[in-house]
């Protein structure tokens, strides 16, 4: 396993990791969960794909990371690539995490109070355990720093942007970058305009022109835009005042409702899991059918809006757990965009599942691609690129 990069994605109580080799050798990957509790566990997959599970009772981020290093079968990575959710306007690409850069990441924590502190905890633990390894930050927001001002500014008093950084940032940048670069490679050349739809538990769309993000559906926070598993996506900004004045809801209650009890789960009153929703809709569950309709319509509406950011449309790309696995969602989204001249090939759509990459159009209209995302691979790739620039 030559020149592998250890990719780390740190949440408040979990660490996902993957040791990514420079070649096609198998990856070692896993997750440490429920950190900080007696139930903490490490689930790991070895090079043969065998699953292992062990207790990590009471482990914090540092203890979990030490346990993860022990599971790397003696491979020492050349660097650690950290996923960082919010890079604000400071970071337009991957950056070496020295003291100065870490101070800038800390400053952006106000914009992502749930995510950046957890990312920083992982970075601190990795630096302490392995001071000799370069630590690199790869930001979810960085790919979208190419948005023009007319796409990233809200129509709010300008001082809110100037003094407090209130603007649209966009997220899932690593995924949109990966799938659009992959589509460039598959289609040939990089003179393309792609509309990408990352549909997982979190969902976002992006318009990519000649390899650069020109607009995206998420904004200041990952709540803006599409309907998601438990997140509402766009609502009337007057909703907060209405719920507060009419129902006496506090800001915290409104925030929790929009993030945790809305989206597919809120609409269906059933589940945020697309597989279960599709099965329930088949059985005639009206909430599940409605949730599916709203979900797909809003994706199509978002893609149509983002098409304004592209001089020409080469095609659409579906990715994420739902985008990669649900022919029904893909077909419904495409059916809601009749004026785009899209021509879905049904058999290819039905057959492109479970991590398969494939083109699902007939060749008559814009291209339609299913491209499994690889955020870990992209983080490792950007980490290597940075090391090469510095060599
Ligand atoms: P995350 O955003 O947490 O990384 P994923 O990208 O794994 O999430 O996507 C999770 C979503 O993908 C869930 O809604 C899940 O139901 C959906 N999904 C996974 N497999 C299928 C499938 N075979 N058919 C439909 N939806 C699926």
TrEMBL record:
Keywords annotated in UniProt: ATP-binding, Cytoplasm, Kinase, Magnesium, Metal-binding, Nucleotide-binding, Transferase
Keyword ATP-binding assigned: yes
Lineage top rank: taxon: Bacteria
Catalyzed reactions per annotation: acetate + ATP = acetyl phosphate + ADP
Pfam families hit by this protein: Acetate_kinase
An annotated Gene Ontology molecular function: magnesium ion binding
ATP-binding keyword on record: yes
Family: Belongs to the acetokinase family.
Name of the protein this chain belongs to: Acetate kinase
Native source species: Halomonas salipaludis
């Amino acid at each position: 396993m030559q020149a592998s990069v250890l990719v780390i994605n740190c949440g408040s109580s979990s660490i996902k990791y993957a040791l990514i080799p420079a070649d096609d050798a198998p990856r070692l990957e896993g997750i440490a969960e429920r950190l900080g509790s007696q139930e903490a566990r490490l689930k790991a997959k070895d090079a043969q794909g065998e699953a292992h599970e062990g207790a990590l009772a009471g482990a914090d981020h540092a203890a979990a990371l030490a346990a993860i290093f022990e599971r790397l079968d003696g491979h020492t990575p050349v660097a650690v690539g950290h996923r960082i959710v919010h890079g604000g306007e400071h970071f337009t690409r991957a950056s070496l995490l020295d003291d100065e850069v870490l101070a800038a990441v800390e400053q952006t924590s106000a914009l992502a109070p749930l995510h950046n502190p957890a990312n920083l905890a992982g970075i601190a633990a990795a630096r302490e355990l392995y001071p000799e390894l370069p630590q690199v930050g790869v930001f979810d927001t960085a790919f979208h720093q190419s948005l023009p001002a007319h796409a990233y500014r809200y129509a709010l008093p300008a001082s809110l942007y100037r003094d407090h950084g209130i603007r649209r940032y966009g997220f899932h940048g690593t995924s949109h970058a990966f799938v659009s670069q992959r589509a460039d490679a598959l289609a040939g050349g990089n003179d393309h305009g792609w509309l990408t739809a990352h549909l997982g538990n979190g969902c976002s769309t992006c318009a990519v022109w000649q390899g650069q993000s020109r607009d995206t559906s998420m904004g200041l926070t990952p709540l803006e835009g599409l309907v998601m598993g438990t997140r509402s996506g766009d609502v009337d900004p007057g909703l907060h005042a209405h719920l507060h004045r009419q129902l006496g809801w506090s800001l915290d209650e409104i925030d929790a409702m929009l993030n945790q009890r809305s989206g597919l789960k809120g609409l269906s009153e059933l589940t945020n899991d697309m597989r279960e929703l599709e099965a329930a809709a088949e059985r005639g569950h009206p909430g599940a059918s409605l949730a599916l309709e709203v979900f797909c319509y809003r994706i199509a509406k978002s893609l149509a809006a983002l098409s304004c950011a592209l001089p020409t449309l080469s095609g659409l790309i579906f990715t994420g757990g739902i985008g990669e696995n649900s022919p029904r969602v893909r077909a419904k989204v495409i059916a809601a965009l009749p004026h785009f001249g899209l021509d879905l090939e049904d058999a290819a759509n039905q057959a492109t599942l479970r991590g398969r990459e494939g083109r699902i159009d007939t060749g008559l209209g814009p291209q339609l691609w299913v491209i499994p995302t690889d955020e870990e691979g992209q983080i490792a790739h950007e980490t290597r690129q940075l090391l090469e620039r510095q060599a």
